Automatic annotation (TrEMBL):
A GO biological-process term: proteolysis
CDD domains: M48B_Htpx_like
Protein name according to UniProt: Zn-dependent protease
Cofactor(s) this protein cannot do without: Zn(2+)
Species assigned in the record: Oceaniferula spumae
Residue ranges of the TM segments: 17-43, 49-71, 182-200, 220-246
Lineage: Bacteria, Pseudomonadati, Verrucomicrobiota, Verrucomicrobiia, Verrucomicrobiales
Length: 638
């Protein structure tokens, strides 16, 4: 399934999620009323049907569940790190020297570069020995990928890459955001069970004999509380049943799609299939022991082993493996703990020889690759994502660049350097502003990075931005506000700013705002591209102008012929940065399929001569990112 279609499908399923939730609330309200009616009848104060009591019960129960869901949903707006902490995970240091963790960091970064999304935060569940993983977040800008210790110890690099690719599929096709909303709603359903457990445990602090002696009705009150507690726990189990039903309905079939996408991303069936076989062949399986694992069971790579009343959130292992490998013989793979210090002697020898890490020669960075017209017809296709391209680009990055992207101070200077102007006089003014706002060393470092990165392929610049995003999330809020102020000034300091640099700044701020300001995405407001005709025209005219004034009109007409739209090219005065920014903000609130229509139209404008130069292609990627779409690099793995 095309990812634009998958995201649109996930958006539509959100409506069904709300319907399921309402039905679950009604079922729980009726069950709670039954418990209350039985308790009142036992005390001699009620009858089987009491309309006023039912109304009060409905208001209180619905209020409790709604409040619980609202509270949890607001908490989850903090992004995937909230879920990771609930699972007892810890964040991986990007500078880690641990071999297993270093391998994980490389795999995740390569997959992010190949997918065209910011690198998610990387977390490890150290106490979990089963083979499992999850992706969580409200959008790619605040996403996390977490794996268990069992993943690191039991899986090969290819198998780990398959698991990570599976989780990236959930990020790209919209499942991740849907799953976060499901977590918020499920918490409200589980509130009743929590209250029942609280009442039941409260009896431990009450003296039944004393209550009976001091108050003739005291014993009855205690028994009523006991019945209410047990009853609410039973009703809570009904809520849990509804929760599992919703989880199964929403997530079960999506696992097959994520498995298939992982194979397309990695071009390797053995990786993810091998991971699934090892789950079936080891003692701990994919079990998750974290206390809050049940709330997030639908997020995991495999069934976490929680009691599911027969409503599993994941398909059986054998079916998933059979779907990937038709000739599978039905045998699982038994695993053992890796040898102590495996490979460390070779690493030590490499360090003593003056090297660290991989000693192979990195592949050359991509040149000015021309993109064929067919590439534009494949926008959103899983086949366009190739993990090998991510590995190719990542391996071609200088170790100094990667280190800078992982350092919170240097990452800021690197971004400043990417945004400095080409004009010497203007650049001097910009450096003075950086020095005034962030210090003398920051200005000098920005100039150094500008010299090092100016002539790089634009896909590499985007890769560096993607690598820097998780590091920049570690800034304090005042530091982030200063960072944004400087980057915005660098863009606005010249009315003729480079459009690619403007887009870089826009996507950096967009992804970081979701973390620091919890802005999230706007609600869908535009469902047809005709509603955004003016904004489409602004972006189309701007993109058509990339080839120069002599080709601008023909590029514009070429895009209109492909799209069937009827518009008139705007004058340059109506396509300034402010107009472009407003157009991007509105398209961010459009449906995925509307965004796809826009990107295809813009692509046809820049390839009216039959192909797209690399910088034009990467500008198209940056534009896509600015409206919430992930487009992989337009480079091939040579």
């Amino acid at each position: 399934m095309n990812f634009f279609q998958a995201q649109d499908d996930a958006r539509r399923r959100t409506k069904w999620l709300v319907v399921y939730f309402i039905l679950a609330v009604i079922g729980v309200i009726i069950s709670v009323y039954g418990v209350v009616a039985i308790a009142m009848t036992y005390l001699g104060t009620g009858s089987p049907f009491m309309p006023s009591v039912f109304l009060v019960t409905a208001v209180i129960t619905g209020g409790v569940m709604g409040t619980g869901s609202l509270f949890k949903s607001m908490q989850l707006n903090g992004g995937g790190s909230v879920v990771a902490r609930d699972m007892g995970a810890r964040q991986v240091d990007a500078h880690t020297t641990d071999t297993d963790e270093r391998r994980l960091v490389n795999v995740v970064e390569e997959m992010a570069i190949a997918s065209g999304v910011p690198v998610p935060e990387i977390w490890i569940m150290d106490e979990e020995l089963g083979i499992n993983a999850f992706a969580a977040g409200t959008e790619p800008g605040n996403a996390v990928v977490a794996v268990t210790r069992g993943c690191l110890q039991r899986l090969t690099r290819d198998e780990l890459q398959g698991v990570v690719a599976h989780e990236f599929s959930h990020i790209l096709n919209g499942d991740m955001r849907l799953n976060m909303r499901l977590m918020g709603l499920l918490f409200g359903i589980l509130m009743i069970s929590m209250i029942g457990r609280t009442l039941f445990h409260a009896l431990r602090f009450m003296n039944v004999r004393s209550s009976s002696r001091d108050n003739k009705g005291g014993g009855g009150v205690v028994i009523a509380i006991l019945l209410a507690g047990v009853g609410l726990m039973i009703v809570g189990s009904i809520g849990v049943f509804f929760g599992r039903l919703i989880q199964a309905a929403i997530s079960r079939q999506r696992e097959y799609l994520a498995d298939a996408s992982a194979v397309q991303f990695t071009r390797d069936t053995n990786g993810i299939a091998g991971a699934l076989m090892k789950i079936g062949g080891q003692e701990y399986g994919s079990k998750i022991n974290a206390a809050k694992a049940a709330e997030a069971s639908h997020l995991f790579f495999a069934d976490g082993g929680m009691f599911s009343y027969g409503l599993a959130t994941h398909p059986p292992l054998d079916r998933r493996i059979k779907a990937l490998e038709k000739s599978w013989d039905g045998k699982f793979i038994s695993t053992q703990l890796p040898d102590v210090a495996l490979g460390r002697a070779a690493q030590r020898d490499a360090r003593l020889s003056g090297f660290s890490g991989d000693t192979s020669t990195p592949p050359p960075l991509p040149g000015q690759t021309r993109v064929a017209r067919s590439e534009m017809n494949q926008l959103g296709e899983p086949s366009r994502i190739d993990a090998a391209v991510g590995r190719h680009l990542h391996a071609g990055l200088d170790a100094e660049w990667i280190h800078a992207c992982h350092d919170r101070e240097e990452a800021q200077a690197l971004i400043f350097g990417l945004l400095l102007a080409e004009d010497n006089q203007l650049r001097e003014e910009e450096v003075l502003f950086v020095q005034k706002g962030a210090g003398h060393d920051a200005g000098e470092l920005s100039v150094e990075w500008n010299h090092k990165l100016t002539d790089l392929h634009s896909s590499v610049k985007i890769a560096l931005v993607d690598l820097a995003i998780p590091t920049l999330r570690r800034l304090s809020l005042p530091e982030y506000e200063r960072f944004v102020e400087i980057t915005q000034w660098l863009i606005a300091s010249d009315g003729q700013v480079d459009l690619f640099e403007f887009m870089l700044q826009h996507i950096v701020q967009r992804h970081l705002d979701s973390h620091f300001r919890r802005t999230g995405h706007d609600k869908i407001r535009y469902r047809r591209i005709e509603q955004l005709e003016t904004e489409s025209n602004v972006l189309l005219t701007t993109m058509a102008a990339l080839g120069g004034e002599d080709q601008m009109e023909s590029a514009y007409r070429s895009a209109l012929e492909e799209s069937g739209a009827t518009m008139t090219m705007l004058p340059p005065s109506e396509c300034g940065l402010k107009n472009v920014e407003q157009a991007l903000e509105k398209f961010d609130a459009a449906t995925p399929l509307v965004k796809k229509q826009l990107l295809r139209m813009l692509g046809m404008a820049v390839m009216h001569d039959g192909s797209i130069e690399s910088r034009e292609a990467e500008l198209l990627r940056a534009t896509a990112d600015a409206i919430g779409c992930s487009v992989p690099p337009f480079v091939k793995n040579s």
